[in-house]
């Protein structure tokens, strides 16, 4: 083993950093000379590479390849490149590397060649007026491009200018601006413009300036004030919604802000609320307007007390205003006013058919202008039927012609006219009134019977009837329902009964005696329910009613015939079962169709001539038809032979009874017959009491002696 001794280590070539000041003006400038340890005279070639040589920025540095001297060929700017890192090479003449490449660092030394720069040319801040000292408003700041580790970038701030009073101060290192004194008043100075400065080298180097604008924010520290204590205005009467005038106020606070906007109130002088006041949002003035119509004749002047205040409450520091109240005097001017109809429409009534010249009403208006002497005149503005005339001075309306009803000019029974009232002012004014005239119905049309003539034909065993109706052109209450009555001549043999109460017939009435005789002439006309009958019949039917006309026999004749039938045929009828013991089945009921008279005292109810001269009466009557006889039975001959002396009533009746007794197949002809079923429970009195008893002892005929001489014979037989 061979032990080697210590050997010498080869040291690599090293180039220390080279410093050069920026902005060096002497160029080319030798920076350094590099040498290789293996340098042989004329045997080494040097080169450099990197930024500033063969990289951007090109051409700043260069090297002498034989001597190794490095030169600066351009001015340097530290703010662009504060150092350059290059590589140095050493080669022999054959291009073989003699040394490993080494670093060559060139440091650019800073010079104070940059001024501080503010971030903004103008800085803006806000602070409320009256702010306490020390209230910070804003901060200004500046930058310096020089080396921040040197005084070249050490910036200091100051306020160069801010007005006569130093109201603000600035922090020299931070640039914060704050209030320095009390008394900031926006109404005195609303905006402050400060000139601030930034200087490097800790305030002794390069400088720059900027502007700081500080706005004072408004507070409500000034109340609104009226520009004067009294205002005078005028307005015309009857004007509504018009502006009377303005009251002017002044407020030192910021215009358009709630601290400036005024609010007005009417404190006194307007208890009726005739005026209102609002604020003009652009001028802040109070605008007085009319809310209700003013009447010069009632009140011609007003004295109003107004107050003003801000929408925003006042600050406690604000002083009270000596002009917060003002007086407004308003004069109401008189103007011409139109007449007024106090009652509009005027409703009156006039009887139909009123003659021309009949007063209708006096329709007048009143003039509100009581302090002006004016005359009103009247005229008909609308009179479609030309029915009316009007006095132009008094306003009295009269009929010009007869008012007819019905008429196409009536609306719901009323006639509408328009009246014009005009004053004599300049220019004249007018008003229109409505006159509503009700045409009252008058009973001026007589009812008319329908039909006016009728013929009734009776068949054997059946009677007939006439259904009478009536019409009336009058309206209610002068029309239906009607009252019907017969003339005294017809009332002896005919009765009349109301058939229905209104207009439409629903049933008929019949005569109980087919041989009673029927009239063929018109009865007495019907009468409306509220008046006596008129003399003229109407040609225009308006309403209807109906009644039945029926014949009747004289009451004495009925009693005589019934008595004879009962005396001769009672036993026979009972034996044959024709007359039952049941009172309900007896068919001798006589219906009370109408008032038939008062017995003996009624001299018109019975014509004795019919018995004294039967040849005249029976010659007009057809032979009667037996309704109760069998079909196979022979009809009795009629008329029977008259006696030579018919004046003897007793013989005439006895002869008739003998004729009836001679027919063995049927009941006696003079028994009670069923002419029609009148319904159960009839309220009419019955004559069945004549034959209701089976024995004479059950009947009391003493009352026959009270009936007069005509029934004396019957009273003698049964009394």
Automatic annotation (TrEMBL):
GO biological-process terms attached to the record: adherens junction organization; calcium-dependent cell-cell adhesion via plasma membrane cell adhesion molecules; cell migration; cell morphogenesis; cell-cell adhesion mediated by cadherin; cell-cell junction assembly; homophilic cell adhesion via plasma membrane adhesion molecules
Polar residues: compositionally biased ranges: 535-546
InterPro entries documented for this protein: Cadherin, Cadherin-like_dom, Cadherin-like_sf, Cadherin_CS, Cadherin_Y-type_LIR, Catenin-bd_sf
Membrane topology note: Single-pass type I membrane protein
Region (Disordered): 502-546, 627-646
Gene Ontology molecular function, alphabetical: beta-catenin binding; cadherin binding; calcium ion binding
CDD domains: Cadherin_repeat (cd11304)
Gene Ontology CC terms: adherens junction; catenin complex; cell surface
Domain Cadherin positions: 12-118, 119-226, 236-341, 342-449
Gene3D superfamilies documented for this protein: Cadherins (2.60.40.60), TCF3-CBD (Catenin binding domain) (4.10.900.10)
Keywords carried by this UniProt record: Calcium, Cell adhesion, Cell membrane, Cleavage on pair of basic residues, Glycoprotein, Membrane, Metal-binding, Repeat, Transmembrane, Transmembrane helix
Subcellular location: Cell membrane
Listed Low complexity bias regions: 503-514
PANTHER family: CADHERIN-15, CADHERIN-23
Function statement: Cadherins are calcium-dependent cell adhesion proteins.
Protein name: CAD15 protein
Organism: Ramphastos sulfuratus
Chain's gene name: Cdh15
């Amino acid at each position: 083993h061979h032990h080697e001794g210590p050997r010498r280590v080869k040291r690599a070539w090293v180039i220390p950093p080279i410093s050069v000041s920026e902005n060096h003006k002497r160029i080319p400038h030798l920076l350094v000379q590099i040498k290789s340890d293996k340098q042989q005279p004329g045997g080494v070639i040097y080169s450099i590479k990197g930024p500033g040589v063969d990289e951007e920025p090109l051409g700043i540095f260069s090297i002498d390849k034989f001597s190794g001297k490095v030169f600066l060929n351009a001015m340097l700017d530290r703010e662009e490149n504060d150092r350059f890192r290059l590589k140095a090479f050493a080669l022999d003449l054959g291009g073989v590397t003699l040394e490993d490449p080494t670093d060559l660092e060139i440091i650019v030394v800073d010079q104070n060649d940059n001024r501080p720069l503010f971030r903004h040319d103008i800085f803006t801040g806000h602070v409320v007026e009256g702010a306490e000292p020390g209230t910070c408003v804003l901060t200004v700041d500046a930058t310096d491009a020089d080396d921040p580790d040197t005084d070249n970038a050490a910036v200091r701030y100051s306020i160069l200018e801010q007005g006569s009073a130093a109201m603000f101060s600035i922090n020299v290192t931070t640039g914060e601006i704050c209030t320095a004194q009390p008394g900031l008043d926006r109404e005195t100075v609303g905006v402050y413009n400060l000139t601030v400065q930034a200087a490097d080298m800790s305030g002794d180097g390069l400088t720059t300036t900027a502007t700081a604008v500080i706005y004072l924010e408004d507070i409500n520290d000034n109340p609104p004030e009226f520009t004067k204590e009294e205002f005078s205005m005028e307005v015309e009467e009857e004007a509504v919604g018009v502006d009377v005038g303005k009251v002017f106020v002044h407020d030192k606070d910021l215009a358009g802000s709630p601290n400036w906007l005024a609010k007005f109130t009417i404190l006194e002088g307007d208890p009726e609320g005739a005026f209102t006041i609002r604020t003009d949002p652009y001028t802040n003035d109070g605008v007085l307007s009319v809310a209700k119509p003013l009447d010069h004749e009632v009140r011609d002047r007003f004295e109003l007390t107004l107050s003003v205040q801000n929408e925003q409450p006042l600050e406690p520091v604000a002083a009270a205003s000596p002009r917060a109240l003002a007086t407004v005097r308003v004069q109401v001017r008189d103007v011409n006013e139109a007449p007024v109809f106090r009652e509009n429409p005027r409703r009156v009534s006039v009887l139909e058919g009123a003659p021309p010249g009949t007063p209708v009403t006096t329709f007048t208006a009143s003039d509100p202008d009581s302090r002006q002497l004016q005359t009103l005149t009247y005229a008909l503005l609308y009179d479609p039927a030309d029915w009316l005339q009007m006095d132009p001075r008094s306003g009295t309306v009269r009929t010009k012609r007869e008012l007819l009803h019905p008429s196409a000019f009536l609306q719901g029974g009323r006639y509408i006219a328009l009246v014009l009232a005009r004053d004599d002012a300049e220019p004249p004014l007018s008003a229109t009134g409505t006159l509503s005239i009700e045409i009252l119905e008058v009973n001026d049309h007589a009812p008319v019977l329908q039909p006016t003539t009728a013929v009734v034909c009776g068949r054997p065993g059946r009677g007939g009837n006439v259904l009478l109706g009536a019409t009336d052109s009058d309206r209610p209450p002068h029309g239906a329902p009607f009252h019907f009555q017969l003339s005294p001549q017809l009332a002896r043999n005919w009765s009349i009964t109301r058939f229905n109460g209104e207009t439409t017939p629903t049933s008929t009435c019949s005569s109980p005696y087919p041989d009673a005789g029927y009239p063929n002439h018109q009865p007495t006309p019907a009468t409306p329910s509220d008046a006596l009958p008129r003399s003229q019949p109407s040609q225009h039917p308006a309403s209807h009613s109906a009644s039945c006309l029926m014949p009747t026999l004289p009451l004495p004749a009925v009693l005589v015939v019934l008595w004879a039938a009962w005396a001769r045929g009672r036993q026979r009828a009972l034996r044959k079962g024709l007359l039952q013991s049941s009172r309900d089945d007896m068919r001798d009921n006589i219906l009370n169709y109408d008032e038939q008279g008062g017995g003996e005292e009624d001299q018109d109810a019975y014509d004795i001539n019919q018995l004294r001269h039967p040849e005249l009466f029976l010659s007009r009557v057809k032979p009667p038809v037996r309704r109760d006889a069998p079909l196979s039975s022979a009809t009795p001959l009629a008329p029977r032979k008259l006696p030579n002396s018919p004046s003897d009533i007793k013989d005439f009746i006895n002869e008739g009874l003998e004729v009836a007794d001679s027919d063995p197949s049927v009941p006696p002809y003079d028994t009670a017959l069923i002419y029609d079923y009148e319904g159960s429970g009839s309220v009419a009195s019955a004559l069945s009491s004549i034959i209701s008893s089976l024995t004479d002892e059950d009947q009391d005929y003493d009352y026959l002696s009270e009936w007069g001489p005509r029934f004396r014979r019957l009273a003698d037989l049964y009394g």
